[in-house]
Amino acid sequence: MEVTIVGAGLVGCLLACFLARRNHHVTLYERRPDPRQEGADRGRSINLAISERGIDALRRLGLDGKVLDAAIPMPGRMMHAPDGALTFQPYSADRSHAINSIGRADLNRELLDAATALPGVEVRFGHRLTGLDERTGRLEFEHGKTETARVVIGADGAYSAVRARLQQLPGVSFRQDYLDYGYKELTIPARNGAFAMDPGALHIWPRGRSMMIALPNPDRSFTCTLFWPHETLAALDGPQRVRAYFAEHYPDAFELMPDLIPAYRDNPVGHLVTMHCSPWHVTTESTTGSTTVGLVGDAAHAIVPFYGQGANCGFEDCVELDRCLDQAGDDFPKALELFERRKADTDVIARLALDNFVEMRDKVGSRMFLAGKRVEHALERVLPGYASRYELVSFSTTPYAGVERRVARQRRIVAGAAAALLALGFAARRRRGLVRTRDGG
Amino acid sequence: MEVTIVGAGLVGCLLACFLARRNHHVTLYERRPDPRQEGADRGRSINLAISERGIDALRRLGLDGKVLDAAIPMPGRMMHAPDGALTFQPYSADRSHAINSIGRADLNRELLDAATALPGVEVRFGHRLTGLDERTGRLEFEHGKTETARVVIGADGAYSAVRARLQQLPGVSFRQDYLDYGYKELTIPARNGAFAMDPGALHIWPRGRSMMIALPNPDRSFTCTLFWPHETLAALDGPQRVRAYFAEHYPDAFELMPDLIPAYRDNPVGHLVTMHCSPWHVTTESTTGSTTVGLVGDAAHAIVPFYGQGANCGFEDCVELDRCLDQAGDDFPKALELFERRKADTDVIARLALDNFVEMRDKVGSRMFLAGKRVEHALERVLPGYASRYELVSFSTTPYAGVERRVARQRRIVAGAAAALLALGFAARRRRGLVRTRDGG
């Protein structure tokens, strides 16, 4: 089968690998130039936290080793209080579990190499999609070039041009929700050739309504990201205000950022959006056969980054679509119809990612939260089969919706156990004559 | 001020009238040809139910008399049971209150006449918007024509081209929700020159998951609309099935529809969508001044038709925007910023319209519902200031959000009164020795 993928980012490249393995011919159209060429725009140095779902997808293609070699494991969070005090909190009761910091650009180059090394995969850079007729499969690109395809898969990200076409069709429900927050990237460079902070953690500066995070890079720098209300970003409009604000709220990081002022001034403000779309595919039958247009990854379900699951979820999409192709005997319209079942899972992670923003920026700094996590990890060690939501999301491939069902079930069991313990304690105290009851016991 | 309105439908024309009265110069761009010309596509014969909000807007421009002269008042609902039994239920305790059936095309021609009669208003038909730069106010139309405007207002309906541009901007949250229902129009023609059913009612055939409604026309026909699940529409794929289905579920209407089969076959299936967008306007400041692009009516907040409020709400938008221009001294960026407050109201009517679908297709047929309505009307007559939600939505200009607050307050009062009545009754029975109490009374 000839398959056209729009977008040669992380998910497009990985999907191309899965499809090539099934002996399909894949053409990827990418609007940007080849990032592996000299002089290509490197874009922003966005870091990803690759965890089990992403690793599992890579493992199925034998790509996990090479990708993880270039990654830095982060087994926990390091919280930075306003006074500079540090608190480390492991992500898992199992100390061998870690999420892995990796640069998006590096990973993209790796996956481009992997895809183009496979027979039947071709990538055409500098092709920006400007039009799509979902009935005929006719694609129009900037500068007038056109192509026709029977199977078109949009892997072209949160602002997908393929989805923009689907959205115009009656019956396609759609939602884009912007947070009233912007993000801006900063850097903590290496100091004397060494990491300026512990590289074995995802660093968080929780500040109530705002926060900053930092992830380590192989060059021993950290990429920091501010997540601030737009009004805060707008209010800090000069070097003095920026300096004063950082000195007050992020004093330890401030000392580690010699380029804060130009970086803050020059780096753009990014937006945080959640996209929902339903259905993700449209099939048109005609006398000459069927044409199918579908969506995967951020194009189908962009989420905010606060659970570190955007790329992991997109990679898992590829695994699931591969599974659907197994079930559908490589009939793409059927497989994309089956793939709609994944929406139950992506809806869950979209919600959890939003919820986790509040947790990261606000709750992780509190003693109650830390104590709760310690109890949860103790339960994980003591109760066979008990696992926290974070554990299941980050260190398992349990479908996201299944995670939520299991977390709800566990809560009921633990609440029941707690009630039983209370009752037992009550009975014991009563035997010891410590409790008076109405019937005179 | 020069103002460009995209869309010369109901809301675009009415807004042009309001703006012309404020001495603005208004150019309306409409993609269709002039509907007042011979041979123009008349479109589907959609009926509207104009009620107080719409009338109030027309009244402010002196247009209410002429519009209502061509309308047919419907003081209540007529429910058709599957066995043909009829139940009439007034919309209001005040029998003089009625909603008014009027054809969309007729009303549009009326408003086009009204707008073009005003100095400073020009309508350019056959101009389909294909591009818009919100920063420069540059508009592109089909066939290569371009214009530039400082103030652009999209009144171009649920599938607004102006909104399509705003949706692409970061920070613009958006949502389109399709119901899994289609609608299809049918006709009950006049019989022997007379209405075949009572013209003084909105007719409803509630059938649980499905329904049909019918509104009277001045030519003594009724326009019927089926609201059916897509699967039902798809399943009735031949004349025999259509005939059998109508004979079973809509036997009384079936007898009044001689053209049922060709109409059912030829009339398209419409879709039912709710659109949410936020913000509704974007202003760009430059050294040469500001450019503002905003949305009104369905372009800003398309709703489903089940509360009969789509056009009424759009007309009320014009009144509110006129009020905002008063407050802002005709500064459009400021006025459109103020106009964002209306979203609290349009969100409410969007929800009520969805809720009312369940009421119309399912509940209006039940005895409980009818009894509840009778109690509600009795309360309206007995309690000073008490008004039902339907009364406030359809026969007042209380802002929609205010309606919901008032309904909630009334419910609390009535619940309190009911509790007090119960207690009084209890005390009375106790005095008469009819109630035994624990303390031996």
Automatic annotation (TrEMBL), chains A, B:
Positions of the FAD-binding domain: 2-167, 292-324
Record's keyword annotation contains Flavoprotein: yes
Keywords, sorted A to Z: FAD, Flavoprotein, Monooxygenase, NADP, Oxidoreductase, Pyridine nucleotide biosynthesis
Reaction(s) catalysed (UniProt annotation): L-kynurenine + NADPH + O2 + H(+) = 3-hydroxy-L-kynurenine + NADP(+) + H2O
Biological process (GO), any one: L-tryptophan catabolic process
Gene, per the UniProt record: kmo
Protein role: Catalyzes the hydroxylation of L-kynurenine (L-Kyn) to form 3-hydroxy-L-kynurenine (L-3OHKyn). Required for synthesis of quinolinic acid.
UniProt organism field: Nonomuraea solani
Pfam family, one: FAD_binding_3
Protein name per its UniProtKB record: Kynurenine 3-monooxygenase
